[in-house]
Specification:
homodimer; Rossmann fold; alpha/beta; 434 Repressor (Amino-terminal Domain); about 45% helix; DNA-binding; 13 helices; six-stranded mixed β-sheet
DNA sequence: CATCACGCTGTAACCGGTTTCATGTAACCG
DNA sequence: CGGTTACATGAAACCGGTTACAGCGTGATG
C-alpha cells in the first residue's frame, strides 16, 4: 500500500504538499499538482480513510439506526428498501457512506451513542418503530446531527422527515366522497403512532369539511398489519349499519380488509369502496387494484440525506420536512355500477 | 473525548497496559485490569476505532455491495430486507459492522476495490443483479474475503450462498404431480440468470423422474417480474393444448400469471394449479394464497456472515453454501374439486 | 535598496491507538 | 544461592494522514 510519504518522495515534494493536492488543491502550484496527481494514479495511491478520520475527526460516514427487534413493528417499514436506496444514493452523491449501526445485543442505554462516538460518525439517520427507546432518545440528545424517518426526533441538532399524513387522509376521504360514498368509515393505525394519529385526524377534518357526521362506530383501530385490517373490517361489517366506503390507513391492512369483505360475500368496489395508504407494491398487484395514497418513497431518503449533510456542515437543524402525498386511483374505488 | 493516555495517567499505568486490558486481557494482572476497567467506565472512555484501524489494519467493517442501478433487476431482490436483517444481526454478533458501499457515480472499473482499500474493509458481501459487472469481478479477484448472495462469485477468497433451486423446483413439480396434474408447464426466469437456469433444470429433472414428457411449448421464459409472468401465461393459454398446472419460477411472476388466468376466465386452482418460488410476502396475501417454494431468507444473511468472518479469520474460502428450500402449500394448488 | 506581501512549500507535531522489545520482579529449581 | 523462567509492565516507534507555523523566492512598493 502506497502511503503519502512514498508518493511525496517519488514526486520530490513533502507529504504536506501531497496532502494539500487532495484537500486544498487551490493553494498548490498547478504544475506540482498535476505531477502529484499523475504519479498518484500511476502507483495507485489511495488516501487511508482511517488516518484521515483520526486526524480530522471527520469520518464521512453516517450511521443508520434501524431497529430490527422483531417484537416491534418498525423493522419492516412499508418501503424500507426504497428509502434505503434514496438515502444511499443521496449520501454517496455528497461524499458520505452509510454504516448500518448495530448494538451487538448490548442493552446499555447508550449503546448507540457509544457506537457513534467510537466510529466518529458525522451524523445519524433513524428509521424504526417510533417507540421512544431510551437509547435512541440519548442519541438524539447527544448532539450528533440526527434525522428521523417517519418519526419525530427531538434534540439539539435533530429533525425529521415524514409524509403529509393529514393531507393524504383528506385526499382519500374527498375521493370517496366524490365517488358518491357517504357512509365512510376508517380503519386506523395504532393511536400511539404518529402516522396512525395523523391519518385519523385527516379523516376527521375532511368529514367535517364535507359536512358528513362523525360516527364513532365508523372508526376502528388496526395495527398496520394484515390481520389487524382483517379483524377491523369484520367489526365494521358486523355492525347494523355498514359503511359503503372505508379509508384504511395502511395498504397492508387494506389487503386484510379486502379479504374480510370477500369472505362476507360482498364485493369491492360495488358494495364497499376501499382506499389505502402507502402504495406498497402489493397495492397494484391485487385484484381489484387498490386505490391508495402514495408517499414519496425516494423523497424520504433524499430529504434525510440533505438534512443530515446540512447539519454536518454546520447548519442549524432545519424544520421537519413534510413530503407531499398523492392519490393513486385503482379499481377498489371505481365508480360502483 | 478521553484518550488512552489520559486513562492511563489516571490509573497510574502506561498506555500500553490499558491497550492490553482491552485487547489481550489475559496478560495483564487481574487487579490492574479491574482498576482500568472501572476507571474507563467512570470517565466514559471509548477506544477510537479509526486509530485502531490505522494501527492494526482491521476495521471490523464488512462492505455491502448492493447494485441499485435501476436498469438491472438485482436491486430489488425478492427478500432483500430479510437478508439484510440476517446479515446485520449475524455480523454484529461477531463484532462486525456493515458499511453500504457506494461508488459515488464513479464509473471506474475498480471503484469498489478502491472503496474497500480506502476504508480498510475486512470483507465484502455482494447482492446484486448477477451480471458480471467488471468492477465486481475485480473486487472478487482483488483478494478481499468476498461472499456472493444468490450469485456465484469466483476469486481467491470468494464463495457464495444460494438456495437449492434445483431441489425446490423438483419439489414444486412433484407436488403438482401428486395433486393429479399431468400437463405441467413452467414459466422460467431469464435463462442467463443462475436461479432461472437452475429452476428450469429442476423442473426438467423431475418431469423425467416422473416419466412425464418434456414439451418445449410448455416452457416459456419470463423475466422474474409481474409483467413477464403475465405475458408468459398468456402465451401458455393461447396454445391449443393448455396446461393444467404451471410451475412459475418466481412469486412475482406467479401473481402476473394469476391475473392472466383470471382475465382468460379460468380459475385457480380448478382449471390451472400454480406453484411459485420465493415465498414473498404477497404470496400469502393473494386469494387464493399462492403455493410456493420458500427460501430460507434469514439463512442467507447468517450464512454469508459466517462465511465472510471465517475467511477474515484466515480460513480458506468455504465451498458454496446451498440453503434448503421447502414447499409451502396454499390455495393455488389445492386439490381441484 | 530595504521592505513587504504573496504564493508556495517543507518541518514537525499531532491525532489515538498497537506492538515490539527491554526491563524489573518474583517464583522456581537443582 | 545462582540461574532460569514466567509474568507484568513501560518506553518508544509506528500506523498514515493533517495542519500550524516558519521559511523561501519573487516581484512590487516606497
Amino acid at each position: 500500500m502506497a502511503t503519502i510519504r512514498e508518493l511525496a518522495r517519488l514526486c520530490g515534494v513533502s507529504p504536506a504538499t501531497v496532502s494539500r493536492v487532495f484537500n486544498n488543491p487551490g493553494v498548490v502550484n498547478a504544475k506540482t499538482r498535476e505531477q502529484v496527481l499523475r504519479m498518484a494514479r500511476q502507483i495507485g495511491y489511495l488516501p487511508n480513510q482511517s488516518a484521515r478520520t483520526l486526524a480530522t475527526k471527520k469520518s464521512f460516514m453516517v450511521g443508520l439506526v434501524w431497529d430490527t427487534d422483531h417484537r416491534r413493528p418498525g423493522w419492516r417499514h412499508p418501503f424500507f428498501q426504497e428509502i434505503l436506496i434514496g438515502l444511499k444514493t443521496a449520501l454517496s452523491g455528497r461524499g458520505y457512506h452509510l454504516l448500518m449501526l448495530a448494538t451487538s445485543g448490548e442493552k446499555s442505554h447508550d449503546a448507540y451513542v457509544r457506537a457513534v462516538r467510537r466510529h466518529n460518525l458525522d451524523g445519524v439517520v433513524m428509521i424504526d418503530s417510533g417507540t421512544w427507546d431510551p437509547s435512541l432518545r440519548r442519541l438524539a440528545e447527544s448532539g450528533v446531527p440526527c434525522v428521523g424517518l417517519d418519526r419525530p426526533v427531538r434534540g439539539p441538532r435533530a429533525t425529521y422527515v415524514t409524509s403529509d399524513n393529514v393531507g393524504g387522509a383528506r385526499l382519500a376521504v374527498r375521493h370517496l366522497h366524490e365517488r358518491g360514498r357517504r357512509a365512510i368509515a376508517t380503519i386506523t393505525g395504532p393511536a400511539h403512532t404518529r402516522p396512525g394519529a395523523e391519518r385519523l385526524r385527516g379523516y376527521r377534518e375532511e368529514l367535517s369539511r364535507l359536512g358528513l357526521p362523525q360516527r364513532p362506530e365508523f372508526v376502528v383501530e388496526g395495527d398496520f398489519y394484515l390481520s389487524g385490517g382483517h379483524a377491523a373490517m369484520r367489526r365494521l361489517l358486523a355492525a347494523d349499519d355498514r359503511p359503503d366506503a372505508v379509508f384504511v390507513a395502511g395498504d397492508e391492512m387494506a389487503v386484510g380488509a379486502l379479504h374480510a369483505i370477500a369472505e362476507a360475500g360482498l364485493k369491492v368496489p360495488e358494495d364497499i369502496a376501499l382506499v389505502g395508504f402507502d402504495d406498497i407494491e402489493v397495492a397494484a398487484l391485487m385484484s381489484p387494484g387498490l386505490t391508495t395514497i402514495a408517499q414519496d418513497k425516494a423523497g424520504f431518503g433524499t430529504a434525510a440525506a440533505e438534512a443530515v449533510v446540512a447539519m454536518i456542515n454546520g447548519a442549524d437543524a432545519p424544520p421537519p420536512r413534510i413530503l407531499p402525498t398523492r392519490l393513486v386511483v385503482r379499481g377498489s374505488s371505481s365508480p360502483s355500477l
